[in-house]
Amino acid sequence: MVVLSGIQPTGRLHIGNYFGAIRQYIELQDRPDHQCYYFLANYHALTTIHDGAALRQQTLDAATDLLALGLDPTKALLFRQSDVPEVCELAWILSCHTPMGLLERCHAYKDKVAQGLPADHGLFAYPVLMAADIVIYNANLVPVGQDQKQHVEVTQDLAQRLNHRYGEVLTVPEPYIVESTAVVPGVDGRKMSKSYDNTIGMFEPENVVKKKIMGIVTDSTPVEAPKDPENNTVYQLYKLFATPEQAAAMRDSFLAGGTGYGEYKKQLLAAFLEYFGPARERRTRYEADMSYVQDVLAEGARQARAVARETLDRVRAAVGI
Ligand code: ADP
Ligand code: TRP
User: Fold this and answer.
1) Residue 119, Cβ density class (10 Å: 0-12 exposed, 13-18 middle, ≥19 buried)
2) Which atom from ligand 2 is nearest to the alpha carbon of 133?
3) 175 in contact with ligand 1, CB cutoff 6 A
4) CATH code of residue 301
5) Measured from the CA of 7, which atom of ligand 2 is nearest?
6) Whether residues 12 and 40 fall in one domain
7) Within a 10 A sphere around the Cβ of 270, how many other Cβ atoms?
């Protein structure tokens, strides 16, 4: 079983990304008979980032984050999308089999146009490149968030078209929808998202995390009054880090009243630091020697590229190139 997913290095990863997606991707590496391919989708990020130094740095940062969070290069491949340029050639071949209507229906492009914003060809063609990413490694299973399901369906459609036309040249993938148990709330209570500037990053300096946690928006229930844990961001975040017993204890304390939000925020900070402590330490070590991260990416690309080359050769032969 080949598992594949791409992550766009468009900003530092936050705890919404981790609990909503990355944790589940990383867990798949431990399943027997699952070969996982994870890559930094820097060609895709180029649809939004037009600053060379920033894109280069963010790509390395995201790779370092993933390794620190537990992606194990002895179990899964990690590489930069652009280190396998064969994917662009395959994208072209797929493009020549892609009806315009299929792409016009895709939401990333459609939403932008609906908002009256200018869209470029990269954004329009984005799902074709994503399809090439998936089929070039013969992926069976593509773990993604709900928002990417449509793109995996486009991939299925294109793979089927080519198989129909040329014989069985491509593997048709299945989406594996990562059910995030809940939407992780940001410090302002809305969905945590880099576009709302309400994120807490796993690897931010302790003083920054402390400031953000202490600044979480809460209601004005007096200290002595009982409080509602279900609609409270501090409790919702604490639950993600705490053991079930710790979460139950905070919940009971909310319902009993008598403790102020400041105290709960301190507990949240302690739980955050404990939960991500080992990952934060690992990241500090990698930062001191980025050659480890570079080596992992190079080896991942070397292995991934060999598979990509075989698929591309097969498709080239089939289409007559
Ligand atoms: P952002 O909203 O910060 O731009 P992305 O859209 O890049 O994040 O998210 C990448 C993946 O992380 C998504 O497919 C989604 O599954 C997950 N994710 C992002 N934010 C959250 C959140 N607040 N709660 C749960 N999952 C999230
Ligand atoms: N488009 C995906 C996102 O924005 C990233 C991505 C690129 C991807 N290529 C992929 C995901 C292939 C899964 C498979 O999140």
Assistant:
1) middle
2) 12
3) no
4) 3.40.50.620
5) 5
6) yes
7) 14
pTM: 0.95
Q: Are residues 171 and 201 in the same domain?
A: no
Residues 41-86 pLDDT 10s: 999 999 999 999 999 999 999 999 999 999 999 999 999 999 999 9
Q: Is 130 in the pocket of ligand 1 (CB under 6 A)?
A: no
Residue 170 domain boundaries: 2-183+290-319
Number of domains making up the chain: 2
Does any ligand 2 atom lie closer than 6 A to the CB of residue 8?
A: yes
Residue 141 half-sphere exposure, CB side, CA atoms within 13 Å? 15
Separation of alpha carbons 212 and 289, rounded Å = 29
Residue 12 lies in a domain: yes
39 bridge partner residues? 6, 79
The answer to whether 167 and 42 have CB atoms below 8 angstroms apart is no
Residue 171 DSSP code: P
Distances (CA, A) of 266 to 212, 232, 238: 11, 15, 10
Average pLDDT, the chain: 95
Which atom of ligand 2 lies at the shortest distance from residue 129's CA? 9
Q: Which among 193, 194, 195 is the best mutation to test ligand 1's pocket, defined by most ligand atoms within 8 Å of the CB?
A: 193
Q: How far apart are CA 151 and CA 138, in angstroms?
A: 16
Span 271-298, pLDDT tens digits: 999 999 999 999 999 999 899 999 999 9
Pocket mutation for ligand 2, best pick of 59, 144, 178 (most atoms within 8 Å of C-beta)? 144
Q: Same structural domain for residues 155 and 34?
A: yes
The CA 5 to ligand 2 mean position distance, Å, reads 6
Looking at the CA of 11, which ligand is closest? 1
Q: Which residue's entry shows tokens 């990383």?
A: 26
| Element of type H or E holding 271 | helix 261-288
**Residues designated catalytic:** 112, 191, 194
The residue whose CA is least distant from atom 6 of ligand 2 is 6
